[in-house]
Write a structure and sequence with these properties.
- It is built from 37 helices and 18 strands.
- The protein is of the alpha+beta class.
- The radius of gyration is 28 Å and the shape is globular.
- It starts with 11 loop residues before the first helix and ends with a helix.
- The N terminus is likely disordered.
C-alpha cells in the first residue's frame, strides 16, 4: 500500500512510540469500549444515521444573494440563481429546464402539482385521506401527529417522476413529507394513482415512520439534495428551523458553485482569468480520449485523474452519507464534509450489490468502469440527465459490439431482454414502491457467489425455475471459471465471523487491485479479529493517506480495545479529512491523554471541537443528541448528558440507544430505580426490544432481583434480534444459579445462530470442563485453535 501521503504531519517520534509500545506489546483481544464496564456506554452508534442530512455553511455569515458583506466576506463569490445564467448559456439552460433537477422541488401550484386533487380519496388501513382544492390552493385532509384527521395545505411538490411527494408546513419551520404519494407513471404502467410508501402494515401516529415524525422531515432528510445553496439553520435552543435556499431546485450553481464572480468576469470582456470566475470546471472528461484496445474489445481512457471532479460533485447527493460538516462547495473534497456509508449491512449485500437505498455512488466506485476512468458524464448528459445513447448503443461506445453485443457473449436471443447489457450487468431494485433504480457496480454475473454468500443472482432473477448452480455451470462452460476471488467472500466471512475471517480481511485490505470502498469496509470489520498480525496493518492505514481506508478505520475505532486505541486514533487526528479526525477524537474522549505531548493534545482538542460542531449541527436528530450526551458524560458533565439523552427521547421515543445509554448513566450514579423505570418505559416504545430487555435484566441483577432478571435476560437471548453477547450473558447467569445443563443448551443453540462466535465457544469449552465432559470441552477448544 502507498504510504507516502499528504496527511498533516504527525511527529515521527510520537508515531514510533505508539507503534512499538502500544501496538506490538499491548495487542490483546477485548471487547473495546471506553471503560472497563461490561455494559458499553455507547450503543449502536450509526455513522450513516440512516439518512442524508442538509448542508449549511457554518464557517461564516450565512447570506442569501443580494446581501453585501464588508471586507473579506464581500470578496467571496455569492449565489446568483439559475436565471442569471440564461443570457449566455441558453442551450444548457434549455436542456436543464424541466429536467429532474429543475423539478426537484417546486412551489405547489397548478403547473407543478401532478396528483389528483379533485376530491380524490385514499384509504390506508381505515384512515380515509381526501385530496381537494380551494380556489388555487391544494389541500389534504389526513391523520396528523395525534392521529386525528386535519386539513393541511400543500406547500411544495417534491420530485416529479416516477412519483411525486408533497411537503406540508409545520410549526418551527418544519416541512414534512406526506407518505401518501402520487404515482406519476403512465396509467398503462400502473400509474396515475395515489399510493402509500409503506403499504404492508399501518403506520400510525407516533410510529417512527409516520409522516409527521423526524424520519419524514424535509429539513434534515431531503433538503440539501433538492435545493441549491441550502441553509438548514437549525436552532438547538428553540428546536426550530429557518431553512433557506437560493434556488428552490437543483440549479446551475449546485454543480458549478456560486456564480457571482463568473458573471463579473463575463461582464469584463477579455479579462485575464483562466477560471472564468468559477472555482470548478469540468474539462477533464472532454480533454481525455478513449482508445479502443483491439485485443480486449474495450476502450481505454488516455487520462482519467482530472475527470474525477464531476464524480465528487454528483456524489455529494447521489450517495448514502450523512453530513458531518455543512457548506461544501463543488470544488471541495467530498470526504471532508460527508461521512460516507461503506458496504455494510443492511445497505449492501456482502458482494456489494445494492440492498438499501444507497443512491449510486457507493456502487459505482466498486466498478471496473470507475477503475478505468469512466465518470458520470460519459453516460449521462449533465444538463438534462438523459443517457447519451439508448439501449446497448450506450455501452457500444466503449465495448466493441462485434465482441459483446452477440449471442456468444450474452447467451440470449437478439433483441430479447436478456440481450440488453443493463439487465445482466446493472440489475434493478425498486424503492419507494415504484422507483426502479439500477445497480451501478456494472458487475459480472456471479451465480456461484449467490449460493455461497446468499446474495442475489441476476440469472435466476429472470430464470425463476432454475438454480444458481445451473446458471454457474452455464457460465463456466462458456467463459471458464471466474478469474478472480471476489471481495464479497472476505466481507461475508467478516460479517459472519467465519473461520479464517481475519486472514481473508487482511488479504482484501492489502490488495490494491480491489475497490477502495471494499477494502475500507474490510477495515471496519478487522477490529473484531484484532491480533498482533492484523494490528500493524491498521496502524499502517492510520499512518497512510488512503481517504476511504482512513474513513473505515475511523468509523470502527470504538470497536478497538481502549488500552490500544490511541495507537490507531492519534495518527488519524492529523488526517486531512475533518470527518476522520473528528470521529477519531470522539473515540479518545476519556482516554488518559495528559501523558502525551502537547501538540497531540492540541490536535485532539481541535478535532474534538470539530466533532462537537458536527453533532451540534445534526442535533435535530436523536442520534446526534445521544452522541453529544455520551461525549458530555465522558467529559464528566453528567447533568448536561442527562438533559441531552432526555431530549433525544422526547424527539424520538422509540430510539433504543438513548434508553440504553441513559440507563447506564443512572447505573453509575447509583440510580438503579430510575434506570429500571426508564427501561420499562422503553419496552413500550422501541421496535426491537432485545437491547432494552438485556439492559433491564442486568439492572434487576444489580438490585438482587434475580428471578425477575432471568426472565428479561431470557427474552433478550431468545429474541429475533438477539446478539451473541445476550446469549452468552444469559447462559452465564443460568450457570451461576447452578443450572449448568440449561446454560449449555442455551450456548449450543446460540452457536447455531452465531457459528464460530469466540465468546460462545469459549463458554462451551469452560462449562463442559466444569461439568466433567472433557471430550466435549476439547472439541470446542479445538475450534478456538484449529491450527493447533
Amino acid at each position: 500500500m502507498n504510504r507516502q501521503g499528504s496527511k498533516s504531519a504527525m511527529p515521527r517520534s510520537h508515531c514510533l512510540l505508539l507503534v512499538f509500545f502500544l501496538l506490538l506489546t499491548g495487542c490483546n483481544k477485548g471487547t473495546g469500549g471506553k471503560g472497563d464496564s461490561t455494559e458499553p456506554t455507547s450503543y449502536n452508534r450509526d455513522p450513516d444515521v440512516t439518512s442524508r442530512v442538509a448542508s449549511v455553511d457554518t464557517s461564516g455569515p450565512q447570506q442569501l444573494p443580494g446581501n453585501q458583506h464588508k471586507g473579506a466576506e464581500a470578496r467571496k463569490p455569492t449565489y446568483v440563481g439559475s436565471d442569471a445564467c440564461i443570457g449566455c448559456h441558453r442551450s444548457q439552460y434549455a436542456a436543464w429546464k424541466n429536467s429532474h433537477h429543475d423539478l426537484a422541488m417546486q412551489t405547489a401550484d397548478a403547473n407543478s402539482v401532478l396528483g389528483n386533487f379533485e376530491q380524490a380519496e385514499f384509504d390506508y388501513f381505515g384512515t380515509l385521506s381526501r385530496f381537494y382544492k380551494k380556489g388555487e390552493k391544494f389541500y389534504v385532509d389526513t391523520d396528523g401527529p395525534t392521529g386525528e384527521l386535519r386539513e393541511y395545505p400543500i406547500a411544495y411538490t417534491f420530485g416529479v417522476s416516477p412519483l411525486q411527494q408533497y411537503l406540508i408546513e409545520f410549526p418551527g419551520g418544519r416541512l414534512q413529507a406526506l407518505s401518501i404519494a402520487w404515482d406519476s407513471r403512465d396509467k398503462s404502467e400502473g400509474g396515475q394513482r395515489w399510493f402509500h410508501l409503506y403499504p404492508e402494515e399501518p403506520v400510525r401516529h407516533g410510529d417512527q415512520l409516520h409522516w409527521t415524525g423526524v424520519n419524514q422531515n424535509w429539513n434534515f432528510m431531503c433538503a440539501d439534495c433538492h435545493s441549491t445553496n441550502l441553509h438548514k439553520n437549525y436552532d438547538l435552543a428553540t428546536d426550530s428551523y429557518s431553512t433557506s435556499w437560493s434556488d428552490i431546485n437543483v440549479g446551475c450553481e449546485a454543480c458549478h458553485g456560486p456564480g457571482s464572480k463568473h458573471i463579473q468576469w463575463a461582464k469584463q470582456l477579455g479579462a485575464d482569468n483562466i477560471d472564468n470566475g468559477l472555482t470548478i470546471r469540468y474539462l477533464g472528461r472532454k480533454s481525455s480520449d478513449w482508445t479502443m484496445d483491439w485485443d480486449t474489445g474495450i476502450a481505454r481512457r488516455t487520462s482519467s485523474h482530472k475527470s474525477r471532479l464531476e464524480l465528487g460533485v454528483c456524489g455529494q447527493c447521489h450517495s448514502r452519507r450523512s453530513t458531518s460538516f455543512p457548506g461544501r462547495k463543488p470544488d471541495q473534497p467530498l470526504l471532508d464534509y460527508f461521512n460516507l456509508a461503506l458496504l455494510r449491512e443492511p445497505l449492501y449485500h456482502a458482494d456489494g450489490q445494492i440492498k438499501g437505498e444507497v443512491f449510486v455512488y457507493g456502487s459505482f466506485v466498486q466498478s471496473r468502469m470507475h477503475a478505468a476512468g469512466v465518470t458520470c458524464g460519459d453516460c449521462h448528459k449533465p444538463h438534462n440527465l438523459q443517457l447519451r445513447a439508448s439501449g446497448n448503443d450506450l455501452c457500444a461506445g466503449c465495448h466493441m459490439p462485434a465482441r459483446f453485443d452477440t449471442a456468444e457473449h450474452h447467451l440470449h436471443a437478439t433483441d430479447s431482454p436478456g440481450a440488453q447489457c443493463i439487465n445482466c450487468h446493472m440489475p434493478a431494485r425498486t424503492y419507494m414502491q415504484v422507483d426502479a433504480r439500477r445497480d451501478h457496480s456494472f458487475r459480472i454475473p456471479r451465480p456461484d457467489l449467490a449460493k455461497a454468500l446468499g446474495t442475489p443472482d441476476v440469472c435466476t432473477g429472470c430464470h425463476r425455475g432454475e438454480t444458481s448452480e445451473w446458471a454457474a455451470s452455464i457460465l463456466a462452460d462458456r467463459f471458464g471459471p471466474p478469474e478472480e476471488q471476489h471481495f464479497g467472500a472476505a466481507l461475508y466471512a467478516g460479517r459472519k465471523g467465519l473461520p479464517g475471517a481475519e486472514a481473508q480481511l487482511l488479504r482484501l485490505i492489502t490488495d490494491e487491485s480491489q475497490p477502495a470502498i471494499a477494502r475500507a469496509t474490510a477495515v471496519t470489520m478487522l477490529p473484531r479479529y484484532l491480533s498482533p498480525k492484523s494490528a500493524p496493518i491498521l496502524q499502517a492505514i492510520a499512518q497512510g493517506d488512503n481517504a476511504l481506508l482512513n474513513l473505515g478505520l475511523a468509523q470502527a475505532l470504538e470497536m478497538v480495545p481502549g488500552n490500544i486505541r490511541p495507537a490507531f486514533a492519534i495518527p488519524l487526528l492529523y488526517d486531512n479529512s475533518r470527518v476522520v479526525a473528528a470521529l477519531s477524537a470522539n473515540s479518545l474522549v476519556g482516554a488518559p491523554l495528559e501523558t502525551y505531548p502537547r501538540d497531540i493534545r492540541q490536535q485532539f482538542d481541535l478535532a474534538l471541537n470539530h466533532y462537537r460542531i458536527s453533532e451540534t449541527f445534526n442535533a435535530d436528530r436523536p442520534e446526534s443528541l445521544t452522541n453529544l450526551a455520551t461525549m458530555h458524560w465522558q467529559e464528566g458533565n453528567t447533568q448536561l448528558a442527562e438533559t441531552m439523552f432526555k431530549r433525544a427521547l422526547a424527539k424520538a421515543p422509540y430510539y433504543t440507544p438513548a434508553y440504553i445509554n441513559l440507563a447506564d448513566l443512572y447505573r453509575v450514579s447509583n440510580r438503579e430505580k430510575e434506570a429500571e423505570a426508564l427501561l420499562r418505559r422503553g419496552l413500550q416504545q422501541v421496535t426491537n426490544p432485545e437491547p432494552v430487555q438485556h439492559s433491564l435484566g442486568l439492572c434487576l441483577v444489580r438490585q438482587q432481583r434475580s428471578h425477575e432478571a432471568m426472565e428479561y435476560l431470557r427474552k433478550a437471548a431468545e429474541g429475533t434480534d438477539t446478539s451473541s453477547r445476550y446469549i452468552y450473558v444469559y447462559a452465564i447467569a443460568l450457570n451461576s444459579e447452578g443450572r449448568t445443563d440449561s446454560a449449555l443448551a442455551v450456548l449450543e443453540r446460540g452457536l447455531q445462530r452465531f457459528p464460530n462466535d469466540g465468546g460462545i465457544i469459549r463458554a462451551l469449552a469452560s462449562l463442559y470442563h466444569q461439568s466433567g465432559n472433557d471430550k466435549k470441552a476439547q472439541h470446542y477448544e479445538a475450534l478456538l485453535n484449529p491450527s493447533g
